[in-house]
Design goal:
With 187 residues, the chain is an alpha+beta fold. Helix 1 (2-51) runs antiparallel to helix 3 (71-92). The longest helix is centred in the N-terminal third of the chain and has 50 residues, at 2-51. It has one domain (2-184). The protein is built from five helices and four strands. The chain has a four-stranded antiparallel sheet, covered by helices on one side. The chain crosses the membrane at residues 12-31. InterPro entries: TadF (IPR031582). Keywords: Membrane, Transmembrane, Transmembrane helix. This is Pilus assembly protein TadF. Pfam families: TadF.
């Protein structure tokens, strides 16, 4: 009888270890999905803000001015985007740390004779593998207006280094959650 009880105890311990590991991975996944959802909403809000500047704020639409050399305008706009994103993330996640967030704002204007591309970033985006909108395919993806002009395209990408990663805790590497949103300018 003692032998049967001992075998049962060992099997129970192995099954409990397996079940608790599965439960911990599920909790890790749920936390990552919640953070990803909050980041998707924040990226969408920021991209919409970029696209609606001309309509609501009497802005000519360029991130850094018409010729791209207005550093004051760039810094002001990036500060506003950072405030919107960090405010949204702080409301959605109680453990949000703005120091772990990277923001990349891209503008692609397919205007003749040549397309204009501008990118600005805040934070450390290393290891995020963000996809850029700077390629020739964007010309054909941009919708035509009633005046046969192509609409400017804006992309806001967010990268957040998450602190809760059971798999990464073993080797000390937290993982990055990435969210991007694209919007077209409104005329």
């Amino acid at each position: 009888m003692n032998r049967v009880a001992g075998v049962f105890t060992v099997e129970l311990a192995l099954v409990l270890v397996l079940l608790s590991s599965f439960f911990a991975l599920q909790v890790n996944y749920m936390i990552a999905v919640a953070k990803k959802g909050a980041m998707d909403r924040a990226a969408y809000s920021a991209a919409t803000l970029m696209a609606e500047r001309r309509q609501f704020f009497d802005d000519e639409g360029y991130i850094c001015g018409v010729n791209g050399s207005d550093a004051t305008k760039c810094n002001k706009l990036m500060g506003e985007i950072r405030d919107v994103v960090t405010g949204a993330m702080a409301r959605a996640l109680s453990s949000f740390d703005p120091n772990d967030l990277a923001i990349v704002v891209e503008e692609y204007i397919p205007a003749p004779p040549a397309a204009a591309y501008t990118v600005r970033s805040l934070g450390d985006g290393s290891g995020c593998d963000l996809v850029s909108i700077n390629n020739s395919a964007m010309d054909s993806l941009s919708p035509l207006t009633s005046k046969s002009r192509r609409l400017p395209i804006y992309q806001v990408s967010l990268c957040y280094k998450t602190e809760f990663n059971l798999l990464g805790a073993i080797d000390g590497n937290p993982f990055n959650i990435v969210a991007s949103s694209i919007s077209f300018a409104r005329f």
